[in-house]
Amino acid sequence: MSAPELRVVRPGLFATIQDLGRVGYQELGMPVAGALDPIALRLANALVGNPAGTAGVEIALLGPALKVEAESVRVAVVGPMALRLEREGEPPAALEPYRTHTLARGDVLALGAVTGASVAYLAVAGGFALEPFLGSLSTYVRAGIGPLGGKPLGDGARIPLGRNAAPAGADVGLPEPPEYGGGPVRVVLGPQDDRFTAAAVETFLSATYRVGKDADRMGLRLEGPTLAHRGTADIPSDGLVTGSIQVPGNGQPILLLNDHQTAGGYAKIATVISADLPRVGRLRPGDPLSFRAVSVEEAEAIRRRQEQAIAGWIRAIRTVRPAGGVDLDALYSENLVSGVVDMRNADDS
Amino acid sequence: MTVRFTTAGDTAFNVEFGEGIDRPTNARVMALHARLKRAAVPGLVETVPTFRSLQVVYDPAATCRREVQAAVEAQIIPDDEAAAEGALWRLPVCYDPELGPDLLEVSAALGLTPERLAALHGAAEYFVYMLGFMPGFGYMGDLPAELERPRRTEPRVRVPAGSVAMAGRLTTVYPWESPGGWHLIGHCPVPLYDGTRPSPVLLAAGDRVRFEAVDRARHDALAAEVAAGRFDPETLRASA
């Protein structure tokens, strides 16, 4: 019998394997990469009983269809996306996200359009049987680093599974989707806010920006009022973090995300706090955002509260109806979803 | 001694030792980097040395800024420049206009012959101030003052991997095909990044580099050895 795997039978648009990042190698110039929305990945892993840092599939825009080539497999999807089960001899059935599903050999899990956020996540019980590179399974596409050639999952790709069968026990779900909070994105000013005019800092903290078309895993170009430097925009290159907001000479801010380079030579006006990184990682072109400054101490307190909330969501995971039972929610969502979502249409407006 | 702490959100801060790109400032960055590697500060994720500052990355779910900064401050020793001497590498480079498409233009702009430019570039020993831009991309200096040129006004969309380049008072070897704005003056046939090696990045911050001119035939022979998997880059490490 062949090794257990998921096989891509229809490619998505941009699905990559990600964990919580290739941490600890920035001194080599190695970007951290990792999940844009670590909360969703952590919850997906919690649903299938994996350690929090287990790699899953990050799905952007439109997901791939995955065929189960194992005795069975338990998966969880976390994020606002459509999915359905294609099982031999049965009509396609819509499945709900935010819960696990136990799939049988030959089943095809068709991951559809991601709507309402840039990304959603698939986790698999037992994880993937892939060799980590520098301690991580995160994919950094720009340099082809990571599992399966460091590329997005293509047609025919085979993802080896850590288990040949789903673990015992019933399927489980989150009572409700995680809450990311609204309002302005919170930042700590600096490290080079002193390189901007007072008016620029005030503008930055009061204006509404919009995510531009140039938005990818490396960063978001923001459209809005330009920010004037005191003197030049250039500094001797220094370290960057996910959430750094750098402003090149044209005055248009760029919010750096997980695939950011490790160092850069533009002055940085502010840094998004860690608790709001999942939120900004979920932004899509055209989304509006504004900023509010907090202190480091406030940021740390907000992060501690967020960790408590995540622990609470994980504790609230509960058994859901077994497969085969009448699932009214699924019936309703199937009717709704098939009416409005064309699974092959990438335009998720 | 003035040391400045700047803030990068609730996951990192920078320890700045100066404003410019110079060896004494960078030596203090590297000294603190080395000390913190040994210190095992709880919640400290990593430190990232750059020209004049050390970025200290920590996990705000495990510790806080106040505690990490106190631990870092305890490791700052006045006038500490005694970082361990890095490795010395001898990197082959072929200064050929076909492999370094800016060689003729930039030497003309500097009022030098291409041969003189190559001789000056190859005569100096360079210090790896930091890595960044792409995995394994080393910012090396200092270029002789006669070779100082600002970056190209039109950056290239595609610079071939292995290109030897210079800009300002710095020089580098591109480890990847990438966009780039530096002047390309030659090519190094040995990859500075190789994902199949246990430690894929050849150079480390704090290392030193000498370029050794090779002719086109030697360059191509080395490239063939690399392609066949027969070249051991450790042979480029000069005994200290």
TrEMBL record, chain A:
InterPro entries: CT_A_B, Cyclophilin-like_dom_sf, PxpC. The chain crosses the membrane at residues 108-130. This is Biotin-dependent carboxylase-like uncharacterized protein. It comes from Azospirillum rugosum. Gene3D superfamilies: Cyclophilin-like. Keywords: ATP-binding, Hydrolase, Membrane, Nucleotide-binding, Transmembrane, Transmembrane helix. Residues 27-309 form the Carboxyltransferase domain.
From TrEMBL, chain B:
GO terms for molecular function: protein kinase inhibitor activity. Residues 3-203 form the Carboxyltransferase domain. SUPFAM superfamilies: Cyclophilin-like, PH0987 N-terminal domain-like. Transmembrane segments: none annotated. InterPro entries: CT_C_D, Cyclophilin-like_dom_sf, PxpB. Keywords: ATP-binding, Hydrolase, Nucleotide-binding, Protein kinase inhibitor. This is KipI family sensor histidine kinase inhibitor. It comes from Azospirillum rugosum.
